[in-house]
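Help! Submission page says 'invalid entity' but I think these are all valid:
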Amino acid sequence: MQKNVKPCYYADYLQLDKLLDAQHPESTKYGAEAHDETLFIIVHQAYELWFKQVLHEIHAILPVLSQDPVNEDQLSTVNLRIERIHRIQEVLVDQIDILETMTPLDFLDFRDYLIPASGFQSIQFKEIEILLGLKSEFRINFDKKSFYNRLNEKDRNYLLNLEEQPSLFDAVEHWLERMPFLEFGDFKFWQMYKDAVEDMLKHDEQVIKDADYLTDAEKTFQLNDLSNTRSNFDALFDKDKYQELKQQGRFRLSQEATLSALFINLYREQPMLNSPFRLLQGLIDIDEKFTTWRYRHTTMVHRMLGTKIGTGGSSGHDYLKQTTQNNRFFRDLFNLTTFLIPRSSLPELPPEVIKAVNFHL
Amino acid sequence: MQKNVKPCYYADYLQLDKLLDAQHPESTKYGAEAHDETLFIIVHQAYELWFKQVLHEIHAILPVLSQDPVNEDQLSTVNLRIERIHRIQEVLVDQIDILETMTPLDFLDFRDYLIPASGFQSIQFKEIEILLGLKSEFRINFDKKSFYNRLNEKDRNYLLNLEEQPSLFDAVEHWLERMPFLEFGDFKFWQMYKDAVEDMLKHDEQVIKDADYLTDAEKTFQLNDLSNTRSNFDALFDKDKYQELKQQGRFRLSQEATLSALFINLYREQPMLNSPFRLLQGLIDIDEKFTTWRYRHTTMVHRMLGTKIGTGGSSGHDYLKQTTQNNRFFRDLFNLTTFLIPRSSLPELPPEVIKAVNFHL
Amino acid sequence: MQKNVKPCYYADYLQLDKLLDAQHPESTKYGAEAHDETLFIIVHQAYELWFKQVLHEIHAILPVLSQDPVNEDQLSTVNLRIERIHRIQEVLVDQIDILETMTPLDFLDFRDYLIPASGFQSIQFKEIEILLGLKSEFRINFDKKSFYNRLNEKDRNYLLNLEEQPSLFDAVEHWLERMPFLEFGDFKFWQMYKDAVEDMLKHDEQVIKDADYLTDAEKTFQLNDLSNTRSNFDALFDKDKYQELKQQGRFRLSQEATLSALFINLYREQPMLNSPFRLLQGLIDIDEKFTTWRYRHTTMVHRMLGTKIGTGGSSGHDYLKQTTQNNRFFRDLFNLTTFLIPRSSLPELPPEVIKAVNFHL
Amino acid sequence: MQKNVKPCYYADYLQLDKLLDAQHPESTKYGAEAHDETLFIIVHQAYELWFKQVLHEIHAILPVLSQDPVNEDQLSTVNLRIERIHRIQEVLVDQIDILETMTPLDFLDFRDYLIPASGFQSIQFKEIEILLGLKSEFRINFDKKSFYNRLNEKDRNYLLNLEEQPSLFDAVEHWLERMPFLEFGDFKFWQMYKDAVEDMLKHDEQVIKDADYLTDAEKTFQLNDLSNTRSNFDALFDKDKYQELKQQGRFRLSQEATLSALFINLYREQPMLNSPFRLLQGLIDIDEKFTTWRYRHTTMVHRMLGTKIGTGGSSGHDYLKQTTQNNRFFRDLFNLTTFLIPRSSLPELPPEVIKAVNFHL
């Protein structure tokens, strides 16, 4: 550590001269300051500060997971950063409660002065979406158009460029693909697993057929769903079927990545799989909290605008409702649950496989 | 206060002998207790306790709002009870985080033993929905069927009977209808309001036309939306148009109730309108928190089941997604925002009207 | 509303060029950037933004309560602002969870570069304390010294000057004093109240004496406490006794203000007392949340520094523990509970008193 | 998994007949039901349900950490259970907000009927305290007396007996003691560490002396504190000094346990130390959340009773204030921070030591 450290002063350290001189309501320029406009500004500035922090964490995580091979010693630090992002997200959701202390009538006092500014123009927000894994082609229609209309050329190119970089989704997929859980020499794990799956599905089928509390219509419905589950399982082990379902949008991860993620979930208690398991859980947490934030945002906008169009020109809460459903990052990890089998049916790993799993890592 | 009060003992007062002897995992009966099943039981029991509390509050609110006329002195107590319900709902949302500490693999250890039990069979939950204002005809299809299949005759009849009773929605509508905000003698409030609305819509139309940052497609879209808003406003003042939109499902409250609620929102600073305004805000808070809970529940089930069918036979998170969107109680109050006009355009109430407003109450 | 509103752009509106260029870790200047220093900076900047918002609300509340007489029509807006401050405080508490994602070992990577900056130098924070009602003479010793040593002359004078202005405590006291609840003509309210109090204390005394589950030592202890309560009650009605207890620090509000606050609490269901009651509850909420934040801050510092001295030179968490206990704003309002009597013993207000209460307001 | 699983019904599964028939307000027996007494009952019943769940988790953790040697494969599951306890605690804190929707005047409607019942008589709560590590001799005076006076003989003996069992504190201490971080063969780790500490303390001393922004009084204060820190460090390595400080209450963990915990903190990124590190963090989280709950409980009681005595005979919030400060479980782990040194000063572990650390586990 350095000698000759200059004394540090709070207000200079935090650059409060800049930070606290950045709140200038539009309403003041047009005659009378609307009391609640300061709240509106500060809520959004707080969001942008936290977005910067989230990006700081994502930019520290990406290099680690993009290595070839990944240094598994660094996974614990990656996990702490993912958990930090999740904790920040909790505050981002709570901040909506603060904004809701503004009533629609009070918003009307200055709303018109903000047009056409809106959250669409938050570059950091789009950066986060892109770096987590959202690509233009997945965005709903309004989003795609706004991408081009609402941003200046510099920002637009910056984001389009960013889409060309590997996202967290890509890095995670790549990390999973390089795991050695596809072949175990003589130990035919995946065959044993398939057999256990088939037993479980047969059992499930029987439970449905024997269930006298179900109507015929319901039995049909549930048997169809089981048939669906069966083809998902089949696809898991068949390259061509997997590709087909991937093209339909049922899967986004590659087949090898999905199988590795499944293995990690099934054998998470192996010491060397503890951190990989936490990583997958952490990504699920982030995705879940992100969509919860979108939903909360939707209901808040419904409250604030009724059925009117938002300042950015979208149909307010309808737009947000769609993005809530569609703009997910790690849906595959949620869906992985479909492929779990009960612990009691899980093949026990022989010592040499345990050794191989642990030594690779 | 009584003399001769018998000493009270904590464990007897809370009937802990009953309460703490109600946790009996199914998995124990079938061979080996699944550690996480106790959590599953206790989470749901905590929900049922809070449901009982919410019903206790609703049952205290209903009689007050069902009076004819309502004793406005009691509104402050009604508001405290609505705020209590909202505070309880916050904990009900947080409890989902506790359940999510159970992983899907752990749920698989005992999930099969629970079939076909599920939240569909929670009578108190359905009671809350019905008493807030949800009627069978509004429920999505699966809900309707489950209503009949999953409940025994006694419970089914109990709930169907309950649907015949006035709900909170009915009581609020009735209370709003009896307010004197439709006529003000010589003061033509609603005509002045209509004029202010027309000015606002003309101004909005001009803003759209003048906006060079909008594409033609966007201008068309926004002008259409404005036209939609215009017909909603027209319907506000025209009995037949209102009925038409009501039949389409655009409104649920009666026209008089909607106009009263609008008036309360516009003139909420009148001392005697403080409590009525808080009441409407409180109902919005409850509705918003309920739908947030439904959404959180959806993502949790997605996480827990993937794309599989839930123990109650529904398509797990798809079902919940639909109820999140459809089973709202006070949507009209959210949509009321569409009809607000800026304070600066609001007609000033002459003294005799202020007096009338306050003296009625 | 203005015509010719210039288009508004998100990044300009929020001055993101300033806001997002204010994060410059010290560790970078001394060789190697500590990853967690950005978090440290951003957490504190988010705090400062919210402090600004809280001050914005306090500055809007003060003028209303400082009027002579207060315009009771404005109380509902004051209450919404107090509730907004409370909602912001909830996020301020949650932000501590974000900072705790930094471990002490990571803090050690840059902690030395921050010396002697610390929260003591947050002018906005001290402003909030002063405007809520904290005066220098109440501050614990270390605080007093730091007031002079850690701030430059300009800031020090600004705050000392601010202490001369009426605080929210002063304004609330003044507002309470001007209420007409001391005399009610022929209706001897306070005599009736005193009698009801005496009955209640006699009853409480008997309950203690009859309690066979209490040891003699406990009976003595409880009877002493009752005796204490009795002198507090006596002081309530006796100018000289009240002054004495006030000098001892038992009361801070004036006697008239305390009696008014008590009356508001007892008769809060009177429509015109609804808003005054909410106001007192809101101040209690703010005080409670502030002290909860101080406590959370204490445990976080204990976690982060162990028993070491903080960057600002204080004994870290010991200092914070003291301020948690001592730096309260509205302790009187909490203590008011001591003087409540059961509703069943409350004198019923005759019509002319109800009228007087309501018409004054 | 079993065949022939009997259909499971929600209301039977959760034993709702028992659970929802356990709410019987005392006020009803004495004439008129107090509306808020149901809330009071249900809040406490919800607490007792969650206490049962916390005990269920603690009872699953204890056997794992009490093994000799501990099976490190099971640590990840222990950590998930600790995190579950922490998540439950968050809801326990939030439940206080629900109880605070009851005003003191409403509590007065039924408070007298509850005497002398109080939280002192919650056996589960005391069980949790004891199993986490609280022993009678650490309890403050009032607690000790109430232990004997307020409980019946059966419960008293049950708890006294429980104190004889190993608590989580004991199990953790034992687990830490058995770690091999005291000797590393030729690698004189602790000597290197001592040298690094001495350098750091010398540096800190110089920083204080050179600090011209400090007054002489402050310099003296800080140098004294440094001297204190120095003797703590000395004690770390000297059996007799450690024992002395242990007797003074400065340490509770044994010296070997403290050294192991310190090592885990310093080298937490070693893959095999990830889970041990999380375990220590988890215990800190639980302790911190417990004391936060106590503090929240204190302010709530202050609000509810003012300065009066609680139903259980203690001086209400004063009692709670003392337990908040004193009844901590893992204070040593917080204080461990005092002994950390910057990463840059940390001795690098040679390969054979890394191997030894990992292979032991």
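Support: the input was valid. A stray whitespace character was the problem, and the output above is from the cleaned input. Residues 211 and 219 of chain B are 8 Å apart (CA to CA).
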